[in-house]
Amino acid sequence: MCRALELVELRCDRIVTALASARIPYAIIGGQAVKHWVESVDEGAGRNTPNTDALICRADVARAISALCEARFDCCEEKGHIKLKDRDRPTESKLVPVDGFILIEGERFRDDDLEVAPQVTDCIESPRFRFLLLEPLVKMKLVRFRIVDRVHFRDLMGVGLVDETWPEKFPAELACRLKEVLDDPIG
Q1: Do 29 and 54 form a contact (C-beta atoms < 8 A)?
Q2: Dihedrals φ, ψ of 169, to 5°?
Q3: Could you give the 3-state DSSP secondary structure of residue 103?
């Protein structure tokens, strides 16, 4: 188990290093960003996640793919995102078939997303990497609203980063989704 967590951390570092070395503005999003926010309040409360997702600009896609391929990732560009597969992964996983996604700012990940991805400049620098600011991160989680996103909300709520004042920050449909989680965190 410890080795698996170590490999995830190393993979995250390789993605960040590849993008930073190519001077590509980026922001870490998804579970890694949630973990970072949660640990900023309670160091032991961060939940591990098997993949690393990042946000970049459309103009940087070709350079990002080149940099990530050099860092030993296979990249598959699809509408609104790039799928990452680690060539150095020791074994294939049926539960985690993709090692990360690179999303494009201002574009939809899926056609039916209620909102586009935020701007890559909506980020904060940490000693380890740049990660998305909390409000745009929460908005992204509300747009996707999968089971894992609800778990991330529980984590953010558990350390007091998201509370009953947050729904008013978002459009009506996203606010309803957040209220649903706030009203029934286990649900």
Answers
A1: yes
A2: -80, -10
A3: strand
Delimit the domains of the chain by residue range: 2-133
**Helix (H) or strand (E) run with residue 151 in it:** helix 147-158
Structure tokens of 57?
């600009």
pLDDT tens for 146-160 read: 999 999 999 999 999
- What one-letter code names the amino acid at 146? R
Q: Which long-range contacts (CB under 8 A, 24 or more apart) does 160-163 make?
A: 160/41, 161/37, 161/38, 161/41, 161/134, 162/134, 162/138
Q: Which residues contact 88 (CB under 8 A, 6 or more apart)?
A: 72
The greatest distance separating any two alpha carbons of the chain, rounded to the nearest whole angstrom, comes to: 46
Q: What is the pLDDT of residues 2-21, one digit of tens each?
A: 777 788 888 899 999 999 99
Q: 2-133 — its CATH code? A: 3.30.460.40
Residue 119 DSSP label: -
Residue 182 burial class via C-beta count within 10 angstroms: exposed 0-12, middle 13-18, buried 19 and up: middle
